[in-house]
Structure formats: C-alpha cells, structure tokens
Protein 1
Amino acid sequence: MLDGVSLDQLRMFVAAADEGSFSAAARRLNRTQSAVSETMANLEAQLAVRLFDRSARYPQLTTEGGVLLADARAIVASVDSMKARAKGISGGLEAELAAVIDVFFPITAIAEVAHAFRAQFPATPLRLYVEALGGAVQPVLDGRASFALVGSLPTLPAGLVAERVTSVSFIMVAAADHPLTRYGGVIPRDELAQHVQLVLTDRSDLSAGRDFGVMSPSTWRLGDLFAKHAFLLSGLGWGGMPLHTVADDIAEGRLVELPIQDMPPGGLQLTISAVYPLAAPPGPAGRWLIERLKQCSNDTTAQEAPVDSVERNRPVHQGSHG
C-alpha cells in the first residue's frame, strides 16, 4: 500500500497541517472539504499511522504526523524543484538575467562566477541587486528578478521555490574595547540586554515587525551591512555578522567573537537558498548561474571559515538580524 502513496495526497497532508483545518486546506488547493478529509483518511490507512487527532473542533497533528510531515515537505519540495528545473532547462535563453543577492552571500563567490558567466553567455547582460531580508525576495515577487539568493527570511510567500545553494557562518562580535569583550566566560542574555545591539533591517513589508536574533531592548537599526560593520568597528554596539565579512578583523584584533549563551563557538549556520517562482523558474542562463554559485560558494566558504563552523548544521533564526 505504501507504493500507492501519491504526490496529491502528500500535498493535501502538507496543506492541512499548514492551514490547521481540512476546510482551509480545501480552499487553498481549490478542492472540496470532503475530498481533503477522504484523502487524509486514505493516506492514514495506507501508512498505517494516524496523522491527525480529530477529537477537537479542528484536526491536530499527532506526534507521528509531525514526524512524517517533515518527510512529506521534503518530497513535495523535491518534486517541485525538479519540475521547475526541467521547465527552466527547456525554455529559451534569457534576453537579460536579473538576480538578487542576499547581502550575507560571499561577494568573492559572486565576482568569481561573474567572470565565468560573461564567458559562457556573452550576449546575456547580467543585472545584480544586493539586498537584505525581505528586500531580497520582493524583486522576485514583482517580476523584476528571475531569482534571488536568500538567507534572511523565515518563511517564503506562496508560489516560490527554495533551492539550497550554500550556508554561511553567522557569529556575534564586538569591538576589541567593547565592555562585553571583558566579561570573562559565556555571556548570558541578561548581560547582553544591557548593551546596544546593532541590528540589520530593511523597509520591506515581508520582514516588517519581525525581530529574530534580537537579544537587547536597546537597538540601533541599520539598513546596510557595511554600515553595521563600520559601527561595530567603532564600538557603537555589538551584533551578528557573517564570518567571512569579519574574519580579517578578528584575526587582526579589531573585532572579538562573543561567547554567547546557547550559541556554539564558530557561529550558527545560515542557509542560503536560490528562490524563484514555481510557475516561472530561471531559464538556461539563470540555471547555469545557480549551479555555478553552488560550486563556487561552497569552495569559498570552506576556505574562509574554520573547519568546526563549516561542519555545524544548526540553523540561525531569521528575520531582522541582530
């Protein structure tokens, strides 16, 4: 019976879990509530696992359902990615390729791949935007960019596909003469709260009101990563930065990595994904660029980051970054 599990069943399972009810899942999928309810019952019978507890007003995921939900999401995402990739390959070459690069992405990898892109597609102009947070996704939604490299939104709007490209180490730092560097030992959250935290922000509605990784009630918000870097060097506050952007500062003693409670040495791992519309995936040039960025960026981050931080796989909370 397990061989008979269909992609349609898994899509309904994911929709029902996300929406919190069979009726809401039906509206999302343009199906009837009875069809969703019957499909879930059939899926449970095929798996021999109860996915939802129906004793309350709204169905609730069981513990077993929560475990299998992760597998269902991965299967649906993989199929969507394959379909989008095939559609992009079969399409014609783009007249111009516009892409958005998350400010956390290693710029050295972009420059290296741009050289190869020019040789591979000499007749295709390349337009690159560098944005942060929701600003990296908005041009894709507006149709101004074919895809975006995104590492700073917790959830994506409906209709977009995310394809992992690489990950970067994200660490908390302060200037060498900042009071936090003299704390001695692991710094607790209540001590961090007594100092100004420099936070990266943007003006996109997609990330409005979201404060993830913010540990201090006293914040200065900056819309540019390079401005945040300069403020950190000036001792105006403490905050998080991609390791590859501050590695030289740490090596030369200008910045110090802060040993913060619940954060492993070497930083957290922030996943960078290529994001594009499922209905309009990148064409041949865009697909080529994504694949080359995967190869080049992984080589670059492996060279720039310490071995222990590259091997970690703990996700960083995303949104407005502290």
Protein 2
Amino acid sequence: MSDAPGSALRTDIPHSARIWNYWMGGKDHYEIDKIAGDAGIAVDPDITTMAIQSRQFLIRAVRFLAGEAGIGQFLDIGTGLPTMQNTHEVAQSVRPEAKVVYVDNDPLVLTHARALLTSTTDEGVTTYVQCDYHEPEQIVADARNVLNFNHPIAVMFMGVLGHASSYDELRRIVNTVLAAVPSGSYLVLWDGTDDSAAYVQLCEEYTGTGGAPYVPRPKGQIEAVFDGLDLVEPGFVPITHWRPQPTEVGHPQTISAYGAVARKP
C-alpha cells in the first residue's frame, strides 16, 4: 500500500504485499522481497505462521458472512497479491451472486488482479479499484459503481492498517468507509500488535530497507476501532482463535495478530 496510485513498479525496494506473498508460500515476488522476507523470518520465525493464519481467518470470516450473515457484497481494502482462497472465491462458493470489490494501489497487485481476480460464478461480480486507502472517500465513490450502498456490505481491512500514517488516520479511514455503508453491514479487521518484541523488531528492520513503515499497535487500539459495533462471537481475539475449524486439534496458537468481525447496528 506504499506506492502512489499509478506509480511505476519498483523491483529494487521490497514491498510488503510481495513479502507477504513469499511468507505465504506464493510465487509473486522478486529477489529483493525474498531477501527481506528471509531476514524477517530470522528475526521472527512466527511471521510465516501469522501470514498463513491470516488467510485462514479471512476464509472463515468470509464464509460466515456470505453464509450465516447473508452478506452478498464485499469491499476488500488493501487486498494484496492474489493467492489461495481469495475473498471472491470464498464468497462466491457460498453465495454465487456475491459482488466483490478489491482495492489496492500497488502496480504488481493490479497487474495480477486483471489476470486473476475474475468471478468464479456467472452470477457474481469481481472487480478492483486502484486507490490508496488513505483516500477512503474516493474508495467509496468508486465502489458505488459496483456495490449497492443501500444494502449491507462487508468492509474488510486485513492486516494492512499498520501502514496508516498515524492511529488517528487509521480511525479516520475506517470510520469514513463505515459511515458510508448502511445498518447491517459488517467490519472485518485484523492487524499485527505490539505484544511480541520479535515482531516489533521485524517491522522496524523492514522500515530500514526502504519499505513503507508498518507500525504494530497495542491490542487496545485495534479493539477500539470496533467501538459502536456489535461484535460477533467470539469477539476480539487472536485471529487463530476466531471460530477455528472443528478439525483443528489441540489449542490454537496465540499470535500477535488480533481481529474481529462486527456488525453495524
């Protein structure tokens, strides 16, 4: 989310979306991203667990929203590079007519979006908006071309708001988008937290590579983003603890990544 919309693709500076893709076992990254990713793993070996578990959280949350919650519209802001089980694939497998709008501003993400982010059903709609999430008013304006803002929408910020320039800016971004969607809409959000010294160090060292700074914030600050919304059980928890699959044995690992799903009254 660091490059300005329409900016040139840089292969000499690591980018969080591409590093994340590398940590998740994907192939859409450059050598500079692999170098930065390996350096991150050396500092915090749990980072690959966070990357993989964040996608599992997305899958469970979207499946709940498209199924039990009856949501047919999704606005995925800061989507990152397409990889396994993207939002539209999960949503349209449950609700074939689901409409999904992805938002990102990284040139590599948009290149792959054009090729890969296509509807999985004839009834569904999948598209993308090229925009920086620091411009939430523009995101809403562009999303209105596809989504019906008179009906509930699931708004998603999946591990991207650490790039917000400040905590006040983070709140402004989320609140602006939520103010535009109607009652019955949902917020799905997770982010890395500062309760792991290794993870904080990883983020600091990534900033030193020239990549866009990512700031882990206290759990309380992330939880406060849900103020005024009705949290879905089990509430605000480590993402590994949000409705883990019954087939997962033992106790889910607790990681420095917290999130929730909540309904706008």
